[in-house]
Amino acid sequence: RYLHIKGGLVVNHDNSALSDVLIDSETGKIIQVGGNFDDYVPPHTRVIDAHDKLVMPGGIDPHTHLDMPFMGSVTCDDFFSGQAAAAAGGTTMHIDFALPVAHDLVKGLEEWKKKAESSCIDYSFHMAVTQWNNKTYRDMAHIVAQGINSFKFFMAYKGALMVNDEEMINGFERCGQLGALPQVHAENGDAVTWGQTEMIRLGVKGPEGHALSRPSVLEGEATGRAIRLAAYVGVPLYVVHVMSIEALEEVAKARLRGQRVIGEPVVSGLALNESVMWDPDWEVAARYVMSPPIRAAEHGKALREALSRGVLQLVATDHAVFTSVQKAAGRGDFRLIPNGVNGIEERIHVVWQTMVNSGLMTSSDFVRATSTAAAQAFNIFPKKGLIAPGSDADVIVLDPNQEHTISASTHHSRIDSNVYEGMNIKGKVVMTISRGRVVWEHGKLNVTRGSGHFVPLPPFGPLYEGLSKQQTSIQLPQRYGPTPVRRAGAEADGQSEGRHEEL
Ligand SMILES: NC(=O)NCCC(=O)O
Ligand SMILES: [Zn+2]
Ligand SMILES: [Zn+2]
Predict the structure, then answer these.
(1) Could you state, in order of their start, the residue ranges of all structural domains in the chain?
(2) How confident is the model at residue 130 (pLDDT cuts 50, 70, 90)?
(3) Cα–Cα distance, 61 to 39 (Å, whole number)
(4) Is 18 helix (H, G, I), strand (E, B) or coil?
């Protein structure tokens, strides 16, 4: 019934110490963290030797797309296969993007809950808003009541998921009322469409056209616009998949102004560069097509540095996988290549290699960026993201000396390629514990369909604390408590008007 992890270096976001950890597998909780507590270990305890290893909170991937219909395909990892891959890579929770069904948020969430019934690790959802009307306004409250505390606005994918500024502003305002965190996919969708048409006109129809049609300036513009509109409406903002210098500079400037903006780089943006989209083999080049695109090497370098300095806060994957057959839909026209790359299994190892082994991050910084910061942003800390008594027993054991090579031939995702193919990593997750159950050990998965729990995310998380008292450089009209000027001869003012139907 109990697991006693013995002799490891327990690493949390704020400290690390040689400690034993005692876990109750039945309740799925950590019950004790301390020195050597051999004397107190209850019967029915399995001892796990963690000498010379690091014992850390399981990874939380705040950005995935499992079983998602997108661009005429459906991502090939469902909740079971994607989560099994996650467990094999040391991730014990993820937050997936539920999409509305025909713009209906409530139907969308129902659908995603069904998809997630096969789960084998813990999970939660963000909800996308793809249209604005009175029903959206009402439904957002129902969604929050069901344990979702973030809404995503796509500023790209014109004609599909994209919203315009008016829709986004209304959605932001509603997020503020409900204590939910607005998130943006920040690219100027109109300009992307123009760029795509231009590429086709010039005869650039291969995957390189994808990169050329959505340059970083369009990401910077949309990031800056979303940030300014969030300040205007008075809400915090979470920018997903920050892929460029232009976008990260907008995040940095906003944070300097005191605005509450979280910037999320993804593993592909940190570790890869765009040259792969010029590969002479179409199938290879198409593997790397995602949006915003993987950029030139200097962007990756800047993103790694920004992450190491806390300008960007946490690392996700945007795991959205399509097989080579699915990608082939865009053979004659890059606009039809389903966008997305893998990462749910590789994130922990690639971040360890590129950030910790390179000296850019300490192991505590690593824990913050891969686990704790997501738990805090989505208001489930210290239940998740911490090794401490009372926290969920989502724990990984990492051997910093074990070397391995990433390959599609050994990964657990259903995708038939791997964008990190051949990458050598020093440091390996040798054990993953999910809610007190060992789900990955000795290179073997031991996962059970349906054992994963939905984790409700409460509204009004830390990003909302004291927010109304904050002054930003962009002044809200409401902050002045505007009163109309009484003018002689003008009609008396009536009741103020509500912007939306009340519930
Ligand atoms: N990122 C990507 O290319 N696919 C998934 C959808 C999204 O996050 O934009
Ligand atoms: Zn996106
Ligand atoms: Zn995404």
Answers:
(1) 56-445
(2) very high
(3) 37
(4) strand
End-to-end CA distance of the chain: 48
- The two structure tokens encoding residue 495: 């009741």
CA atoms within 13 A on the CB side of 99: 15
Question: Whose CA is closest to atom 8 on ligand 1?
Answer: 318
Torsion of the alpha carbons at 461, 464, 466 and 469, rounded to the nearest 10: -170
Asked whether 64 lines ligand 1 (CB < 6 A), one says no
What is the torsional sign of CA 318, 323, 324, 328? negative
51 Cα: distance to centroid of ligand 2 (angstroms): 41
Residue 161 CA: which ligand 1 atom is closest? Answer: 9
Could you tell which of 318, 342, 419 is best to mutate to test the pocket of ligand 1, judged by most ligand atoms within 8 Å of the CB? Answer: 318
Our answer on whether the CB atom of 58 is closer than 6 Å to any ligand 1 atom is: no
Report the percentage of the chain scoring pLDDT > 90. 91
Distance CA 176, CA 170 (A): 10
What pLDDT digit, counting tens, does each position of 465-475 carry?
A: 988 776 555 55
In this prediction the pTM is: 0.96
CA gap 378, 124 in Å, rounded: 10
Residue 179 CA neighbour count, 13 Å, CB half: 15
299 contact partners, CB below 8 Å, separation of at least 6: 216, 243, 244, 245, 269, 273
Query: What is the tens place of the pLDDT at every residue in 72-105?
Result: 999 999 999 999 999 999 999 999 999 999 999 9
Q: Mean pLDDT over residues 235-260, rounded?
A: 97
Q: What residues sit around ligand 3, an ion, with C-beta below 5 angstroms? A: 318
Mean pLDDT value across residues 178-206:
98
| 231 backbone dihedrals φ, ψ, rounded to 5° | -65, -40
CA distance 488 to 44: 85
Name which residue sits closest to atom 1 of ligand 1, judged by CA.
Answer: 291
Fold for domain 56-445?
Answer: TIM Barrel (3.20.20)
Q: Is the CB of 339 under 6 A from ligand 1?
A: yes
- Please state the ipTM of this predicted complex: 0.99
Please state, in angstroms and rounded to a whole number, the distance separating the CA atoms of residues 496 and 503.
Answer: 18
Which atom of ligand 1 lies closest to the CA of 97? 8
Residue 284 has a pLDDT of 98
> Which residues on neighbouring strands pair with residue 399, listed in sequence order?
428
CB 367 within 8 A of CB 3: no
pLDDT tens for residues 34-80?
A: 866 766 678 899 999 999 999 999 999 999 999 999 999 999 999 99
